[in-house]
Amino acid sequence: MVTLESLPHLPPVVGSVPTDGVFSLLWLVIALPALGAAILLIGGKRTDKWGHYLATAAVSASFVLSLVLFFGLLGRDGEERQVTQHLWDWFTAGSYQVKFDLLYDQLSALFLLLITGVGSLIHVYSIGYMEHDERRRRFFGYLNLFVASMLVLVLAADYVGVFLGWEGVGLASYLLIGFWQHKPTAAAAAKKAFVVNRVGDIGLSLGTALIFVTFGSTSFAVVSAASSQASDGALTGIGLLLLLAACGKSAQFPLQTWLLDAMEGPTPVSALIHAATMVTAGVYLIVRSNFIFSLTEDARTAVIIIGCITLLMGAVIGCAKDDIKKALAGSTMSQIGYMVLAAGLGPAGYAFAIFHLLTHGFFKANMFLGAGSVMHGMNDDVNMRHYGALQKAMPVTFATFGIGYLAILGVPPFAGFWSKDKIIETAFADNVLVGLCALVGAGVTAFYMTRLMLMTYAGTKRWEKGVHPHESPKVMTVPLIALAVLSALGGLLTLNGWISDWLNPVVGEHEEHHLAIPAIVMSLIILVVVAAGVAVAWFLVGKKPIPKVAPTEVSVFTKAARADLYGDAFNDAVVIKPGVAGIGALTTFDTTVVDGAAEGTATVFAAMSAQFRLLQNGFVRSYALALLAGATVVVLALLAVNFG
Amino acid sequence: MKFEAPHIEYDLLLPILIILAVAVLGVMVEAAVPRAQRYLVQVVLAAGGVVAALIAAIRVFGTINPTSDNPKLGRIVAEGALALDGPTLYSWIVILVLALLGVLLFAERQLDGGVTAFAGQASALPGTEAERQASAKGLEHTEVFPLLMFAVSGMLMFPAATDLLTLFVALEVLSLPLYLLCGLARRRRLLSQEAALKYFMLGAFSSGFFVYGIALVYGYAGSMSYDKIAFAIASGSKSDGLLLAGMGMLAVGLLFKVGAAPFHAWTPDVYQGAPTPVTAFMAAATKVAAFGALLRLFYVAFGGARWDWQPIFWAIAILTMVVGSVLALSQTDVKRLLAYSSIAHAGFLLTGFLGARDLAEIKAGDIDPVQAVLFYLTTYALTTMAAFAIVSLVRDGAGEATQISRWAGLGKESPLVAGSFAFLLLGMAGIPLTSGFTGKWAVFAAALSAGAWPIVIVAVLMSAVAAYFYVRIIVVMFFTDPIGEGPRVTVPSLLTSSVIGIGVAGTLVLGIVPGPLLDLIGRTAQFIR
Q: Where are the domains of chain A?
C-alpha cells in the first residue's frame, strides 16, 4: 500500500453535478463538427462549393459555445464546476455500466477552448492553403471528424469513452497524414503512424481492462473515489500501461518515430493535429488520470524518465534537420517531453504540464502555419537550405514567426517563458538531475530554433530558379496574427497563479516546492543558457555561408541526428525483423504443411495433372494427421494435468 | 408387451418441426413440380417456413418471460432430449434469422446472369460436355433449399441437446447437408468439390473422435444425459481416466466445428471453395450452433470438472487467436482472409467461454460468460454474413474476383459497396461504435471477471494485429490505384442488398446501443439443468 500519510492530500474525486441551463448544450460542442463531417463526407460532390465554409462555421460555432460554457463555469462556485451530462447508456452488464457521459470541468474546459479555438483558426487558414486542391471538401470533412473525435476524447467521463475518441483521432490522423495519397511517402508515413499508434492503443486497452479488474468500473468518478484503496501493484501497472498509451499518441520514446514522418500531411494538419492538439492527448491522459499517478511513485518515475529522454532526443533531432517541418516536428517531440516530464512530477507539475500544453499549442501552431506560409511562397519546397532572406519578402510571416520563436525560447514576457520556467523550476525542486536535463533542453531548443530562423529569414537568398516568394493572402495571415498575439500574451494565464488555482480542484492540492535559490536567480540562469544556445547558433550558422546541398562530411552526432537518432533502425532490429521472421516461419509452416492445397488449386486450373491428385490426397491426410495430433495432445494434456 | 408412447411437446418444438416439414416438402417439390417453377416454389417455401419457424420460436421464447426481471428457466422436453431454456431459445432466434438471410443469399439470381450461384448439374464432371450443356440450358440446383433446411434443423437441435446421443444426431444432421452444399459452386467447381470432399472427410474423422468420446463418457457416467453426467462428476467416485479422455475427444469434435486451432485446417480451404452464399451462412450459423452446444456441454455436463478442462482450453484459445490473426496477415484472397479472421473470432469467443465460474463465484453485477458469448455470436454473425455477401458482388468475367490485389480502387468504382465493406471490417477489428467493439468488450470483461487475464492480454494484442490486416484491405480499396482492368461491382437484387443492409445496420446499432440486447440476453442466460 501507499503510505497515505506521506501524501499531503489524497487525489481529488471527480465530481458530477448534473447539467442545467446553458450546460445542457454541452453535447452540441461535439455534435456540430461531427455533423459537419457527416454532411461533407456523405454529401459528396454537391457540397464541393460551400463545404469548407460549412466546416469552418461548425468549428467556429463550437468555439463560441465553448467560450459561453467557459464563462458559465467561471461564474460558478468552485465545487460546482465539475458538470456531467448523461447522454445514453452505452452498454450494461449487470452492475457494470458504461454510460455515454460527458464531463465538463476545469481541465476539459481549457482543452475545449484550445481545440475549438486553434481549430477554428486553422480551418480559416486552410481555406487559403487548400484553395487549389481538388479534394478540399474531403480535407475539411476529415478535419471536422478530427475535431469531433478530439472533443470526445477530452469530454468523455469514462475510460471507454476516452478510447472511442482515442481511436477516432487516430483514424482522422491516419487519413490526413496520407491525404496526398499520390505520394508514396505519404502513404508509407500514414501506415507507420497507424502501426505505431496501435502499440499505444494496446496500452490503453489493457490499462482500461486493468482498471476494470481493479475497480469494477471505468468511469472517472468511481475510479477516482476508489483509487486510494487500490493496491500499489495495480496502480503502478495501470500507470505504466497508460504511459504506454501516452507514448504512442504523444510520440514519446520509444514510440516517437512516426511523428517526423507524419509531416508528409498537409501543413495545417501538422499544425492542428501533430503540434497543438492530438499529440498532446497523452499528456491529457496522464493529467486526467492524476488519481492513479499521484498514488504511484514508480509509474511517475517512469513518466519522468520518458519525458527527459524525449525532450533531449527531440531537441537533438531538431538541430540537424534541413526540412523546416521536420525540424519543427523534432521540436514538438521535445516540447511534449517537457509536458510529460511535468506531468510525471505529480501534483506539483500537473498544472504546469497543462499550462505549457496550452502555450505550446499557441506558439507551435503559429510556427507551423508560418512554415506553411513560407512553403506556400516557395512552391512547396521544405528545404531550408533553399530559403534565406525571406524577412523582406514575407514580413507578416516573419513577424508572427518571430513572436513564436521568442515564445518557444522562453524570452520574457512571451508565453513560453512563464510555462517553461515553471517546469524547469519544479524539476529542479524534485531532482537536480532531472532539472539539469530540462535546462540543457532549453539551451538546445534555443540553438535549433535560432538555426531555423537564421536559415529561413536571414542571410543570403539561396532560392531555386523560378521561385518568387510573396506574402500569403489575408485568409492565411490573419490566423497567424491571432496565434502570434496568443503566443505573446499566453503568459497572462498564470497571472496571480490563476491556472494552478483553476486546475487544483481537478489535479489536487500540493505543497509549494522549495528551491535552494530564489526563483529570480533560476530564471536568470535559464536565460543565460538560452542566450548561450542562441550565440552558438549565431557562430555556427549565422556567420558562415549556408551550402545549398547538405554537407556529407559531418560528425557522427550530426549523422545520428539526421537519422532521427536511429529510432527506425532500433525498431527495425528489435521489433520488425524478429516479427517478420516469426510470421514468415508460421506462414512457411502453413503453406507447406497446412495450406498447400489452396496454393495448388491454382495449378489445378492450369495443369489438372494426375500428380496433383496424388498431392491432394497427401494434403487431406496431412490435415487429418494434424487433427489426430491435436486430439492426442488435448487428451494427453487433460490426463497429464490431472494425473501429473 | 406394453409399449409406452414417448411424450413429445409438439407445441414447444414447433420451430424444429416446421423446418423439418419444409425440408421434406422441398424434397417432394423437386420430384413433383416442373423444373421451370421449382425455383419460385422452393424460395417461397423456404422463406415462408423460416419466417413461420421464427414466429414460433419467438412465441416459445415468450413463454419464459424474457422481459421480466426474473424469467423462468425453461423446460426440458422430448423425454429429456432437448432443453428449451434461455440460451437455446435465443440461439434459435439468431439461427433462424441467419437462415432467413441465408435463403435470401441462396436465391440471388442477378449476379451471375440470371442463375443462382449453384452448379447447373452437380453430377456433370467439371470441364466436360455435360457440364457445358447444363450451363447452356441454364439449369440450377434448387435442392439447395431443402438441404439448407435440413442443416438448419440440425443447428436448432445442436444447442438444445441435453444428452450426448441427441447431440451427436444433431451434429450429423447439420453437417451432412453442409458438406453437400460446399460442393455445389457454379464457378470454380474443382475447388468447390475439393472443399466439399475435404470438409466431409475431416468432418467424418472428427465425428469419429466425438463418438468415441461419447462411449468413454458413457463408460464413466453410465448415462448419456447431461444431468446424470454432472451428477456422476459431482459424486466423483469412479475412474477419472475415462472421463478425461472422453471429455477431450468430445471437445475435439466441437472445436473442429467452431474452427479452433489446431483443428482449423479445413476452414480456409472450405470457406474459399464453397459457393459464397454457403460460406456466408456456414460461417455465421454454424458458429452460433456449435458454440451453443459447446457452452451447454461444458457448463452443464462437465461444469463440475471445470478445473480439469480449463487449462487445455486456455491453451487452445490462445493458439486459436494467434494462428487466426497471424496467418491472416499473409493472405492474398479475401475469402481466405475472412476464414482466418473467423478462426481468430473463434479464439475471442473461447476467451469469453473461459469466463466460466461457479454460480457461487459470480458476484452480483458481473457479466455472465454465457451472455457475453451469445452477444458476441450475434454481432459476429451479422457482420460476417454481410461481409461475405459483399464478396459475392465483386466479379469479373470468371465469376467472383477474390484476389485482394484485384480489389484495388474499388472505393472509386463503388463508394457505397466499398464503404460498407470497410465499415464491416472496422467492426470485425473492434473499433468503438461498432458491434465488434461492444462484443469484444463483453467477452473480455467476462474473462477478466473470472481472472483469466493472461488470455485477455493475448486477445488485446491479437486484436491489434488483426486490425492491421483489416485496414490493409481498406487501404487497397481506397488508397491504391487499380492495375489494369479491375473487377466490377455487380448490382445485386433486393435479396442480397437487404442482407448487406441488415448486417451493416446490426453492426452499427449494436455498437451504439447494445444495452437492450445485452440486457435481454443477460436476464435469460441461465442453463436449465
A: 349-562, 595-643
